[in-house]
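Suppose a colleague, Dr. K., hands you the sequence of a protein chain of 237 amino acids and asks what its three-dimensional shape might be. Before reaching for any lab equipment, you can write down a predicted structure in token form. Begin with the sequence itself:
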Amino acid sequence: MLPSGAAIAGRSAAALYGVGSVGVAEPLDVLVPVGQRFGPVAGLSVRTAEVAEADVRLKTGIPVTTPLRTCWDLAQWLPVEEAVARVDGLAGQRLVQIDELRGSAHDRLGLRGCKRMLRVAELADPGAESVQGSRLRVRLVLAGLPRPVTRFVGERDGRFVARLDLAWPDLRVAVGYDGLWHDDPEQFHRDRRRLNRLLGEDWIVLHVTAKRFGEDFDGFLAELHHALRTRTRTRTR
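The predicted structure, expressed as tokens, is then:
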């Protein structure tokens, strides 16, 4: 039983809104108002902060931080890459608006945590289609690359050819993330066929697998840097 004013928060709240998940062995995030004494409790990760009544709502009878407050807490508690991945999901479901996040941060200028919220809001993109795709995009931007377009639709003669995870359309360079869903050979075949059509339109399409994302990201980043530099030089000639 949670104390008065407390709520499920952070990653656990995001999961209740359908964004990400919390493993069975992971603790639930709980936010407790300042002045309340609660815990430690096995299976709960308890954090204390100022909590307004408007920051909490009931979801199937359970007190949960609102999507807006959830984004604030995610920005404070998680590394920026992980926070943005979940904020992307909440924004993609239209539970929050990016401008709303920026406004919330500006309203708290001077308070601890506002800069983290602003940074997450600047990096967030409701067009992201997966948590891992969000992580990839954020990592590329933090590495100094220009911000890519999410879910870019490649066309030929006005007709749909393929939707690309990340793209720099002016340079005709794109990145595709090959996640676990590509264990389906038929889906993999369809995706590759569509991308091959784009290659005929003079696109460079690079692919990063889950394994490479985790073990050889620097190598992939060097390849992408090279592709973008090559296309930039070609355009300036």
